[in-house]
Amino acid sequence: MKVVLPDESQLELPDGATGLDAARAIGPKLAEQAVLVRADGRVQDLRLPLDDGQRIQLLTTRDKDDPDALAVLRHSSAHLVAEAVRRLYPGVKVAIGPPIENGFYYDFDFPEPIREEDLETIQAEVERELAEGREWSREEISRDEARKLFAAENEPYKIELVDTAEGDISLYTQGEFTDLCRGPHLQNSKPIKALKLTGLAGAYWRGDSTKPQLTRIYGTAFYDQKDLDGYLERLEEARKRDHRRLGNQLDLFHFDEHSPGSPLWHPKGMAIFNTLEDLRRRENAQRGYLEVKTPLIYDKALWETSGHWEKFRESMFLIPLEHDQVYGIKPMNCPGHMLLFGSALRSYRDLPIRYAEAAPLHRNELAGALHGLTRVRYVTQDDAHIFCTQEQIPAELDACIDYLRFLMGLFGLEPRAEFSTRPENKLGSDEEWDFSEGELQAALERNHMEYVVGAGEGSFYGPKIDLHITDVLGRSWQLGTIQLDRQMPARFGLTYMGADNAEHAVFVIHRALFGSFERFIGILIEHYGGAFPLWLAPVQVRILPVGEAHHDGAQTIALRLREAGYRVDVGEPTETIGKRIRTAEMEKIPFVVVYGDRESEESLAVRSRGGEQETLSLADFVTKLATL
RNA sequence: GCCGACGUAGCUCAGCUGGUAGAGCACUUCACUCGUAAUGAAGGGGUCCGCGGUUCGAAUCCGCGCGUCGGCUCCA
């Protein structure tokens, strides 16, 4: 048979030849360094046979940055960790250990809980294995044999995996450890030049909180020690951009233990918050939204009608009152907007009605889920509910997507779109979901939105178009969302009178484009590393009088700039000018104006963030600010 | 909520195996009146997260609670 190499040349091989055979046929050095073969674009273990006519690409230790090459290295590293753990902790049961972005993990069921300091012991054992060297061998066996093998090894998790695995069952063995594994794996452990265990965490078996909790050991590995060092440095750099750290440094917000998950916004953070709110209000008005305000608390009956009592109660703050009454603090605005819509007879001529409200919402998020501004209990969504006819759905969805793109474009953010379909705890029939999902998907296609499908990720009342973004530490967060809902208006008995003088069901599009101001600001802080563009910066210009004598002049300049609509403060001369400039730089203020004997309104010394200086008249400076 | 770690001055952190708390920055005062990333000196500031326990003695050891961090689950 023949295979095609990346340079288009053909390589003649005996039938049944493997990737490794192909490498040997090309050269011994290549065979030694090979870690993986890509056959017709799919990664494959070197030990597996190739097919006639396949285009193959051999990946070697020199492809040290290739994601597939790294994945195989890390997958094999995970197996080394499992071998080490089995040797060190007799009675431990192994579960699963895949490569992940930036590393790998392996889940174990330990007879006794282990602690973080145990990682050092395990790390040492893995290093011993690496020094000794390990070779991987692969074999395929029947399902029954696999069950027997793992029964004999007392590995119940492996047996469960055998039972649910698709396709042939393959085993990989290195040293004293044989694992059920699809592969691929390295030939041997020589390419693993750097391996570091990075963390310990609980993780439910199969990601199911009703199943036993296992102990997950995280690690990472590289083909080159330098790459590990670089990775750790990048983590450290990312940590500096963490919005929680910058929020404190830049005096934007803080959290207090008396209200976990609820930020206390400092004046500077509030300046950003308000800027976004102003943007929202202005743009909503342009786009035909109607601003409303609805109650923060409602009685239980309202939540029963909306379905929240059944589906969302655990995340709600409840207020017990006398006579067995219970009020719930709203976690969403939708029920209030339903009441608004239902407060009058609606004609088809009134639709669509777009109610907008950025009210504080409270969700009693699990304590362990809280995370700076990105996961809070006090959340402010830039919420709106569009009540429309079935025919109006496509145009309204298009308008939402356009709005979304406009907003994200302002920040240069490029979120990933996810189309989230019916969840397990859905309200409504499959037919209704078919329709709603169809509308959303069509809108995505029509607007050329690239998206992935999040099966079962939808809200309980409807499918969603979600926008996700990754924070500085690689964690994914949902920002905006557009959801199509026919359940809630139906539960509230909402209808409109059609041209046919008959009542029709009304549809609701729930949409939040920033998602929540809290999370969005958190993401913005990291996105800009705290160096906000002029229009978002809490302090846009700082005036620094050189000495006491320049106080009045500096105040006058500040006043003029404020009149022009900018956020300006004055750094009085209690410190040297050099110190005050340094402070302003650390606060990442976009412009600093030094005002001394040499300056006047006709000639200001303007320093841009970063150190660039120029001399401008006040009028020219205002003009310059306006263009940014 | 679950697993693991952590909680010392406003902030960042030091404080070995228990002997009664420290640095830098910030703050206050004084001197300096200053030109584009740190002037100098002095001073104030801590229920060592909370509650219990062990001990002659607890920031330090143990238990419980609260909070934070890394994950899991859940979610904007």
Question: Under the CATH scheme, which class of the largest domain?
Answer: Alpha Beta
Radius of gyration: 30 Å
The SS-based structural class is alpha+beta
Query: How large is the count of helical segments?
Result: 19
Distance between the termini: 64 Å
Share of residues in helices? 25-40%
CATH architecture of the largest domain: 2-Layer Sandwich
Could you tell me the CATH topology label of the largest domain. Answer: BirA Bifunctional Protein, domain 2
Q: Please provide the count of β strands.
A: 34
Describe this structure in words.
The chain has four domains: 59 residues, Beta-grasp domain (Ubiquitin-like (UB roll)), CATH 3.10.20.30; 175 residues, 2-Layer Sandwich (Threonyl-tRNA Synthetase, Chain A, domain 2); 237 residues, Bira Bifunctional Protein, Domain 2 (BirA Bifunctional Protein, domain 2); 89 residues, Anticodon-binding domain (Rossmann fold, 3-Layer(aba) Sandwich). The chain is globular and about 85 Å long. Strands 16, 20, 21, 22, 23, 24, 25, 26 and 29 form a nine-stranded mixed β-sheet that branches. Strands 6, 7, 8, 12 and 13 form a five-stranded antiparallel β-sheet that branches. It is 35% helix and 26% strand. It is α+β, with helices and mostly antiparallel strands. The termini are far apart. The protein binds one RNA strand of 76 nucleotides through strand 12, strand 13, helix 8, strand 22 and strand 26.
